[in-house]
Amino acid sequence: MVSKKVTEYLKKAKVPFEVVTHKTVYTAYDAAQTLKMKLNQIVKSLMVKVDKGYYLVSVPADKNVDFKMLASAIKKMGGTAKKIGIPNEKELTKVFKLKPGSLTGFGSMHKVKMVIDKDLKKVREAIVSGGSVTQSLKMKINDYINMEKPLVAPIGKKKKLVLTFKKVTPKKVTKSKRKKL
Fold first, then answer.
1. Percent of the chain with pLDDT over 70
2. What is the DSSP letter of 86?
3. How far apart are CA 56 and CA 15, in angstroms?
4. Full-model pTM
5. Contacts from 44-47 at CB under 8 Å and sequence distance 24+?
């Protein structure tokens, strides 16, 4: 369930939103499938550790964060980005008091700077995490951007679907092995 803290935050900011209930999902891809929406309409947010600080980074679900592009964007913002990584659940729990699956798409709620991929501006409405695995928030992307005031930059790369096939050759079964089976 979307936390009361999130809904109060949005109401205080006078940002219209809709709570969308769905089956339990743990990934942005699953949210898109469940809600029958395009991947680029789902905001995928993740907490990233940059040097000794944190940033909330959001990209459309059809993209992955490109750390080189993110470092470049942070440097343009006047920051440094010598070391970038994704903190583990234990660290997120300790630093942000978050339970697994409860990260929202709102950097200001977590008191961190935010960077979003420029392609999010191409959609009118999007699904944003409200910190729940069974409910999400539907809102206008411009309201989201105006409220959060993130750095908007090219930080995502399209996911490449790679299929690998392993050639399997059947083993010959000899008469002696056949008897043992």
1. 88
2. P
3. 20
4. 0.83
5. 45/103, 45/104, 45/105, 45/128, 45/129, 46/86, 46/103, 47/86, 47/87, 47/92, 47/96, 47/103, 47/110, 47/112
